[in-house]
Amino acid sequence: MTTITTFRPRTGRTTELVLLLFAIGIVLLAHVNVGLAVNDEIPPNLRLTAALLIVFTVGLHLVLRWRAKYADPLLLPIATLLNGLGLVMILRLDYAAGRDVGSLVASRQLLWSALGIALAAGVIILLRDHRLLRRYTYIAMVVGFLLLLLPMLPVIGHEENGSRLWIRIAGFSFQPGEIAKIVLTVFFAGYLVATRDALSLVGRRFLGLQLPRGRDLGPLLAAWGLSVLILVAQRDLGSSLLFFGLFVAMLYVATERVSWIIIGLSLFCAGAFVAWRLFPHVQTRVQLWLDPFDPSASSDQVAKGLMGMGHGGLFGTGLGEGFPHLTYFANSDYIFASFAEELGLIGIFAMLMLYALLVERGLRTAIGSREGFGKLLATGLAFSIGLQIFVVVGGLTRVIPLTGLTTPFLSAGGSSLIANWIIVALLMRISDHARRPVAERVTDDPELDTSTHAGVAR
Amino acid sequence: MNAPIRRLAVVVSLMFAALLVATTYIQFFQAEELREMAGNRRTLLDEYGRERGAILVEGTSIAESVPTDNDLSWMRVYDQGRLYAHVTGYYSFIYGAGAGLERSANSLLSGSDDSLFYRRIPDLILGRDPSGASLELTLDPDVQRAASEALGDRRGAVVALDPRTGEILAMVSHPTFDPNSVSSHNLSAVQQAYEELNADTSRPLINRAIGGDLYPPGSVFKLVVTAAALESNEFTPDSELPSPLRYTLPGTTTSIPNFGGSSCSDGDTTSLFDSLRVSCNTSFAWLANELGAEALNAQSEAFGFGQSLQVPLPVTPSRYPVDADDAQVALTGIGQYDVRVTPLQIAMVSAGIANDGQVMTPYLIDTVRDKDLDPIDTTEPRELSTATSERTAQEITDMMVAVVESGSGSRAALPGVQVAGKTGTAEFGSSGAAHAWFTGFAPADDPTIAVAVIVESATEDWTGETGGVVAAPIARAVLEAGVNR
């Protein structure tokens, strides 16, 4: 006979709602601020923006209460705040570019945000258990590569600024690589959970390192080579770096073998060197990284971004008071520099902290998850956000050479926004599973229980 | 799998730490350098979005920012632009703060100067648009106008100083230009005007009074040689110097004549007093050789040669050639060979003699005022150096009075006011062409204004225009305008 207790685990849903309303409040204030600073009037689309933001995010909150009540309560407010700030900056740059109300990039971005949040809700509702995804490991691989290949197709494939990353159907352009990132993470997670024992335990020791067998390496090497080839052919260095880093990180987490990191880094260095020797556009990037202010440089993009950031200084010019529009791609690749200029060092520290928190909550979900697939999937998704921020912001700030990547939740562009909301939805789903008290766990489907060999925490 | 996830979290932390460090470096440590980088349009736009301080002469603005309707909120307007062009410089959206005070006092005018920091705090708190400081200049509009009108279409420069304080009363360089032509918002017209000004072979953008290709001083340098002679205590105004018709340069067979081949006196010698009065070449060449390069260089430096002055416009240092051989030293005695001066430096020589041997530091900005015209900073007159003893200064003054009363500078004489002066005709090139100089001060007993005038030779050939003929009347007009301030 056990004692009956009235233990009620904290779901954190109320915290989430309070933080969410706080996030929306900040966004709307910033929205009004931009309107007043640039046009001396409250933005005409304030009500629409407020209504859409509140309806959709609070809607997602309610969906979480209904279908994933133990989900991590910080994910939704952080994602909402970042997405909202992105909207504000895009609107601010619309004003600077003198776009009229009908053709605002911000309006399109608002619709994409609504769609992204709706899709996130859809993921939460339809995907009752993330382990279902494990069934589609190899389908995910095929779909992932197909998505990566889509822009190479004639007719629908579309090239912009020297990179062939887009498809365009009926006037809408889309970057399938963003979705491929999620699908391939699912594939990596599923594949690694199945093969991790072979990958980590079997093999020869050499110089104190546990080296894997050749046949275990094969499929992964092939997968990596193919994705990198596609990306180099599409001239998208940023994604190439992102996929490879993600792949090595997940491999390391699955096997706990440092040898994988060493092999991975060697492969990366060799690849980078070859790319530098072979491709003039890579050489240009390296040159701009080393000396952005060279007057004979082929582009002053990096220099202009740095000048913008320097202009912002410690406190920033204030929203609407700077000149972020003087930098190219100010509302997409360089949107972080736009924030740095207008919100200052203090502002971007706060924003970097938001991202760090988002990644940390994702990794915490991975640690809390009780089975291998969830751990790997959460790790991969969270790390991909962190790595993407590093590649983008590191590119602007000359930590690494500049490569084109979107800034999660901030950059103008539908595919990126949708992909990131889906990532957040998946993290919510996994964290719901991870944080749920054991008594409530549903293990009716034995096929779903991957914890038999993977769930043992080391 | 939790251990590697934790290690991965550490890697993520390191990545974010790298970003924090990089952004801190750029936005804090490197920010100033980035802001001042050439071609930073943000800085220009920022400055254009702010009311730039005015430049005032006796309460009247000669450069001010007026509000405009276009997206550059302010436009720089120069009232009497051509008259003050080299003092104000120009402030152009395309070319930035160019030359003059617009450049050298840019941080004050734009309001970014550190000395304005505490004044910016209330603006910041009250949300007022910050504005730059206004500059009240030392220039005297009457003297400036007299100098410009007297110089007319001739190329050259005029500088007038108050010898007691170092205040610059006039600074004129001809040919001049209209700064409005490069400060307007019609950018294509600005570009065309700028290119034309730069291509102009008469080089109107050069401020001849303080920069450019320095001039040989010719006979006005004899003032410095005289000072060195008297300061050496081996000579007095009555010392008799050898003054042959031709003086053979030591160690050579070359000889130099007096101006026009005339003799300096009835005999073989001429007193130092008369040598300066009639500007005797042979006796001064001999005297320079007697004194030596070292003494002459020391005396030059005592008058300010070799110093990089900021008034705050940067003044090119005048120079005396230290490595000259005996023949060359003799030539420096008459202001030839490699002696090179700015008109401002020559005005400082006169001013030093006028001020009992004390050279005052020249300056242009009298008062820095904030937006409400409250004074922030007032320049106090500062002594630059002691050039001569009071007695030497008085003795040279007497000689200079004689130059105007009964020597080569008679055209500088003013009715009722005793003028001290010295003419110069400085040869350049090999064809005998010469620049005409005059420097002096008035009234001789209690000087209130010192002046230096140079008129460039209009041609490459000798046209007979001496300092006494061409430059002295200009100096006279300037002294007349300034003597009764």
Largest interface: A-B, 48 and 36 residues
Look up the CATH topology of the domain at 218-364 and 381-482 in chain B.
Beta-lactamase
Spatially, the strands of the biggest sheet of chain B line up as 3-2-1-6-14-15
Label the CATH architecture of the domain at 218-364 and 381-482 in chain B: 3-Layer(aba) Sandwich
Low-pLDDT segments of chain A: 449-458
Helix content of chain A: 55-70%
Residue-averaged pLDDT of chain B: 85
Class derived from helix and strand content of chain B = alpha+beta
Instruction: Please give the radius of gyration of chain B in angstroms.
Output: 27 Å
Average the pLDDT over all residues of chain A and give the rounded result: 85
Distance between the termini of chain B: 91 Å
Which structural traits does this protein have?
heterodimer, A: 458 residues, mainly alpha, three-stranded antiparallel β-sheet, 66% helix, disordered C terminus, B: 485 residues, alpha+beta, Beta-lactamase, six-stranded mixed β-sheet, five-stranded antiparallel β-sheet, 17 helices, 19 strands, 19% strand
Secondary structure blueprint with pairings:
The complex is a heterodimer of chains A (458) and B (485).
Chain A (H helix, E strand, L loop, with lengths): L12 H27 L6 H22 L7 H23 L7 H22 L10 H13 L7 E4 L2 E7 L2 E3 L1 H26 L2 E3 L2 E3 L2 H20 L3 H19 L2 H21 L1 H11 L10 H12 L22 H34 L3 H25 L17 H22 L15 H4 L4
Antiparallel strand pairs in A: 1-2, 2-3, 4-5
Chain B lengths: L1 H28 L1 H5 L5 H8 L6 E3 L2 E8 L6 E4 L3 H8 L1 E3 L3 E3 L1 H5 L1 H5 L6 H10 L7 E4 L3 H11 L4 E6 L6 E7 L5 H4 L3 H13 L22 H10 L8 E3 L3 E3 L6 E3 L11 E3 H6 L3 H22 L23 H7 L10 H12 L3 E3 L4 E5 L5 E4 L4 E4 L3 H17 L13 E8 L6 E9 L6 E7 L11 H16 L3
Parallel strand pairs in B: 1-6
Antiparallel strand pairs in B: 1-2, 2-3, 4-5, 6-14, 7-8, 7-19, 9-12, 10-11, 13-16, 14-15, 17-18, 18-19
Describe the structure.
The complex is a heterodimer of chains A (458) and B (485). Chain A has a domain at 131-277. Chain A is 66% helix and 4% strand. Chain A is built from 15 helices and 5 strands. Chain A has helices at residues 13-39, 46-67, 75-97, 105-126, 137-149, 176-201, 214-233, 237-255, 258-278, 280-290, 301-312, 335-368, 372-396, 414-435, 451-454; strands at residues 157-160, 163-169, 172-174, 204-206, 209-211. In chain A, helix 9 (258-278) packs across helix 10 (280-290). Chain A is globular and about 70 Å long. Chain A starts with 12 loop residues before the first helix and ends with a helix. Chain B has 17 helices and 19 strands. In chain B, a hairpin with a 2-residue loop joins strand 1 and strand 2 (60-67). In chain B, helix 8 (141-151) packs antiparallel against helix 17 (467-482), helix 11 (222-231) packs across helix 13 (281-302) and helix 13 (281-302) packs across helix 14. The longest helix of chain B is centred in the N-terminal third of the chain and has 28 residues, at 2-29. The A-B interface holds A 249, 252-254, 256, 293, 306-314, 322-323, 326, 340, 344-345, 348-349, 352, 355-356, 359-360, 363, 366-367, 372, 375-376, 379, 383, 386-387, 389-390, 393-394, 397-399, 454, 457-458 and B 1-6, 8-9, 11-13, 15-16, 18-20, 22-28, 30-35, 37, 40-43, 45-46.
